[in-house]
Amino acid sequence: MRTGSVKKYVIPNIPYLFVLWACLKLGTAYRLAAGADFPHKLMGLGQTVGPAFANLAPGLDPFDWLVGIVGAVGFRLLIYFKNKNAKKFRRDEEFGSARWGGPKDIAPFVDPVFENNVILTGTELLTMNTRPKNPANARNLNACVIGSSGSGKTRFWLTPQLLQASAKKKGGCSFVVVDPKGGVLSQVGAFLQRRGYRIKVFNSIDFSQSMHYNPLAYIRNEADILKFVDTLIANTKGEGKEGDPFWTKAETLLYCALIAYIVFEGPEEERNMNTLVEMINSMEVRENDDSFKNAVDYMFDGLAKRSPDHFAVRQYAKYKLASGKTAKSILISCGARLAPFDIAELREIMSYDELGLDTLGDEKTALFFTISDTTPTYNFLVALAFSQMFNLLCEKADNVYGGRLPHHVRVLWDEAANTGQVPGLERLVAVIRSREISLCLLYQQLAQCKALYKDNAETILGNMDSVIFLGGREHSTIKEISESWLGRATISMQTEGRSRGQSESYSQNTQRVGRELMTMDELTTMPGDRCILQLRGLPPFYSKKYDLKQHPNYRYMAEYDSKRNAFRLDRLLSHRLKLGPNDTYTVYAVGEIDDEEDILNYDDLDSEDEFI
To answer: How far is CA 196 from CA 97, 166, 570, in A?
Structure first.
């Protein structure tokens, strides 16, 4: 019999064996009592009780056993009906059962090896194993960190995560970090290199200190085009009220057509955003002449003859339904949206790709996105990269690795409210856990997430098993934490009364009342070294923030030794082409270039005479 069954059925019924024995002995005493009827035997029962209980061994007389069994069953039924009809009392929980968590609550969720944990607070850790032996202790590694400016989101939470980097070749996880101003990279870059990590950097503050990123390099099929265009439009719509959705849909048709042509028909060296901008710039439209054709029109005419069912052709045909005046407005809108891509530095940095977003789970990698916290001009590129990265990693986990990446990928998204929006994030955050991917969002207040993702914000936050509050004053955030996270506790309140007069009296009363575990004003005035952790399924923890200097790997940070642990980004970046002995390459003969030659290639024209 299983231990659980013994505890559930056998142990609770042991007391009834004593009841059975006692009733059996009373049956023996009744049987031995003098008299022929019940009243006389009942009167003589007092003389036979002693001898009956003198012998502890039960008798074998059927009458004795009948009395014992009937007595035990009757007593059991009495207890059953009494418990069934009893009033339900929850002493000291009448107005709420909220309490603070302690070491015993978090203990089942901590890995014995410190390096194998996610640091949540100064006293609470969470194992990185998302599939523990006890499934009841499984938690995803998604987290939401909320803290106002200066509350220590970077120092007390984000940086300690990177110091957990493993030195094992086959172990450890990859990191994707949004790093405002590049401060985190300069502190831990050298440490990560010592741990065997590949360091990659996309720097939107100084493109000369950045690796190249070409979003079109990751487009494999028509579905990828639609996802990319949706993300591009969502993050370049500007502020203010949205206009007529017709123009957005018309732009989508044109983007899909042009990108499909570039990716599926263009030469490899031209599959980038620069070609897209050039094609839009060359699309002349005449308002009063719908029959006029520009260079791009002729390119699609040639493609339509070769492949009439091509995705690019079908999308472009829908765009061409617009009149000349409407088409001109669409092109103006496209030009305004893609204006940042006309900047020479950005065009160069997006000419080819070095980030390898689809390889982050193959080996230990740390990818840093350095952004400006004052000028958000290029911050939308982070959202573009993240949208592609999540989809690429999920597809690779499913198609190559049987559903799980060999290296867990942790995305630490600082300034999540200022770096754009990932369309469909509410769906992605619910499924990435099984692929060994986790997302950590860092906000200054909850209202930022709700403003960005509207009705989907609750779904996104609902898939974060860990929520950490580092401090702040924003009203809606404080109210939600006090009422929804922490709940109400039952406390005892003592009141005193004293009346003076001809006869003085004094009274003291004690009663139970309910109050929030922490009120809004207590949260607002929470000490700067304290934080609140809410881990799914556990009571909240009121703990100290993690002290970065206490980390075993703190001595490898540049803050500890600025000379020995300095990170040299200039040594990492080298854009000169280096050919290996086994690399295949093609040698081209370069002749004189005709200055009058048009920059566009009209290979798709069946005849040169067709171009007017």
So the answer is: 48, 9, 19
